[in-house]
Amino acid sequence: MPAEPWRRALGMQRAAFVLLFLATSVVALAAVAVIGFVIVRGCGALSWAFLTTMPSNGMRSGGIFPAIIGTLELVGLTVVFALPMGVAAAIYLTEYAADNWLTRLVRLAIVNLSGVPSVVYGLFGLGLFVAFCRFGTSLLSGSLTLAIMILPVIITASEEALRSVPKSFRDVSLSLGASRWQTIRHSVLPFAIPGIMTGTILGISRAAGETAPLLFTVAAFYLPRLPHSIFDQAMALPYHLYVISTQIPHIPSVQRYGTALVLLLLVLSLNLLAVVLRTRLRRRRQW
Amino acid sequence: MGWQRGRERLIEGAIWACGISSIAIVALIFIFLLREGFALFRVVSVGAFLGGRHWYPISEPPQFGVLPLILGSCWVTAGAAILSVPLGIASALFIAEIAKGWVKEALKTGIELLAAIPSVVLGFIGITVLSPFIQQTFHLPTGLTALTGSITLAFMAMPTIVSITEDALSAVPRGYREAALALGATRWQMMHRVLLRAAGSGIVAAVMLGIGRVIGETMAVMMVTGNAAVIPRSLLHPVRTMTATIAAEMGETVRGSEHYFALFAIGIVLFVISFVINVVADLFLHRERT
What is the pTM of this model? Predict the structure, then answer.
């Protein structure tokens, strides 16, 4: 082989690899930069009082207690609605569904649900839960809307977890005379739980950070008390951050960064939990 | 035994119902958008809605021309795509083919972190950091421009593009790589002439899904693009997207008013766009596998 073109190709390769490395650094470092920046600017605001007191003075001072509680309640209710439905749908797809047009239609619907813009979920929640079902702007409407939004995340993760349980588990159970449901209940589902939990936590983290679906379904601009029931309005962390960073002038910036930090910490620790679960699951799997 | 069989029937029925519920939900979303959105077309024709150049929903008489909003979404999305597509594909190549060991894990974690950051936090950083920077760099009256939105959204599209492209690259059979290298290609030649082409349809799907994410993004874009509902002339002007219009104006409408219907009609447009993008992207993904 002639040496000259080969050397040029190698030089080209070196240049290309350097460019690829730079591009990747931009993407990966952006996350680190954003998170680091919020931590540095926001940690000054963090205090026990900030986390546990009501906002005061038109949200210009005081804490973010009702927003934190509101988000926790919303997310809790969301899981109550989404988890059983998502897992059941995944069981249907892995254990029951035949390869026919109906199953293909279900898959197409799931793909679509995962792509619907979050604000369209908000419109849907407004049309169905707030107006048609007359739940009003409430925790109930908001969490049902969020539940529908994270349903595809839970279905996809649960399906993957169920599929990773070996077929032999089912064969043994069925051959011992167990019914189909008994097999699923005792020989398949228990082994899929860690995978389902990972997916659910990722879904929760998405629900905790979303704002757009809450705008018309639950969010109270300023509600210096806790919601009394699921039919009550509530504040939520992401919406609170949106409000204080765009709607209200002359807020001390430490108040904003503090709110951003609490939201970021909540979402990132959920993601971390999911990653830890996933790695432990991979290490422990024996089949 | 009979009692148990009945109970199982019941459980299996419930599972079946949950299984096909996604179809019902998609149908319900579409029905509710149509139910509320179609009322607008009793007052405004579809042509005047989609082609109208003026969005003045609260003036007298109101004008519901959605063209400035569609173009606003297009400008922001195009800007975000120009930034995120090359960077995203390059990152996926680097992570899948070059990086090893802890570097690879660190980069993957960084990109997962980026995907996890809530859009309202990115929007917040867009307002506090990026927007003043853009304003000073280009000597603009305001830093809240289409460009600010494009940059913010590019970082939201990248995780999607990177992870799907990476999947597509690792699905390319080993034999392709080995054949190219055996013929004397450098690793870079193998990557850009063989791998990128072999993974082509997966990469197209990745780009489409990334773009779908950008078009549907709401909070960040509402916070950083300045929200001027005029037909945009350049990336350095404020624009207003379809998503931001719905989010910003729904709170101020009266339920059942024309304005309220018009916002649902924009929702129909968004739903149809995301539907098309996701179905086509899914076709590309499945073409990859067979």
Answer: 0.91
